[in-house]
Design brief:
Helix content is 34%, strand content 22%. It has 339 residues and is α/β, with parallel strands linked by helices.
Amino acid sequence: MSQYQRYSRQMLFSQIGEEGQKKFGDTSILIVGMGALGTAIANHMVRAGIGKVRIVDRDYVEKSNLQRQMLFDEDDVEATLPKAVAAKRKLEKMNSEVTIEAITADVNASNILELMEEIDMVMDGTDNFSTRFLLNDAAFKQGIPYVYGGAVSSRGMTALFIPGETPCLRCFIQDAGGTTGETCDTIGVISPIVDIIASYQVTEAMKYIVGAYEKLNRCLLTVDIWNNHTYSMKYSSPKTDCPACQKKEFPALQHGAASEVASLCGRETIQINLEKAFDLKEWSLRLEKVAKVKKTPFLLKAELEEGERLVIFPDGRVLVQGTSDSGRAKALYSRYIGM
């Protein structure tokens, strides 16, 4: 009876109905990225009654997120909560019938296939094409759909890629070097475009889950809500030399473990990952002698006298904030952590 009360309006939509609702409950999805797109996607999917939702994000909540990332509030900022943890807490209050798994981690070639275990669909809440190519390649290797999405400024793009049926992301975009490099942190973003793209992503996912294949959009959709432009690029045959969906080489999975040093999306932040665990209590005691330290159960933040900040995670990652110079970041890491 509770199911009928909770999902009654959704089941009244004839193309979902009781049978479609059961399919929702039997589905497991992975959402990578709990930023603007990811939180909007998770909100819709959890309220819709998807059986299991696994969310993964490497970052923590900051005040600049609140303008567009719907699952977070000022209390999360004050507590310096990891985004995955804060999102899980909100989502569980929305729907206790859904199993929600929250993982704070950097998604890379060394862990993506494990994160996809027992997953039926991958949904894109990321902010960079390197990770999108990784999701694309892993999804096509595993034979599960990948729901691509991206939003910046007043523009957004989305598509549903299905292994064996459609082209993949690489058939449209050859490599990250071919993208504009524009990000929310460099040219901004307005929240309505995020909601629109996330809604398209979720709707295509719903169609696929209930088996309404004839209703699938089967195009790469581009929307600019400020300039009133909409463009659909209909799918053609996959590129014969595509290294993912045709040659099955999956280049994003060939790089092994995560890179030790990576710049994070226009944020004056360098991530250093040496793949070893940190004891936050131990490192709090070490760093409080030379920095202003704030420790939570999930991370440790150290304000350095040089002006930069170190954010240390238990999984071995360190964010050096306040610089986009990898050399400077490595020097600070070496000085305070050791290399």
